[in-house]
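Input.
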Amino acid sequence: MALTREGVIGLERHLADHSAETERALREQHHALFNAQREQQPIPYGAARVIVCWEAMQVETALACVLAHEPKLRSRYGYELASDYVKRDAPNAFGDLHRASVEPLAEVTRFWHDYADHLAAVGKVKHRKDSL
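Output.
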């Protein structure tokens, strides 16, 4: 899906050049990704969004995470992304953890450990081991 590629490119631009212009462009891409899959299907007690392209949905969530100004929203979107990544090969519709989740979970864990180590190296946070 072209919108997915454009969303990733826009995200990379915004992270490299955190300006009002790149943020505006990212918001437009987020809106376009949402609109591409905005169809809803009635279910008991409400409606469910119909997702045709899971990768586009993940990019949409990543853009929402970067664009969120509230830490709680960023945490929620970041958690959704990590959870979806770890459970992406789930054999059922509920996305349970299973044997194939082990390596993706290890990747996510390594990413956050490396990120925390980087923050500690640049002096933004106290290193985990230093606070024990």
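Residues 102-121 form the longest helix (20 residues).
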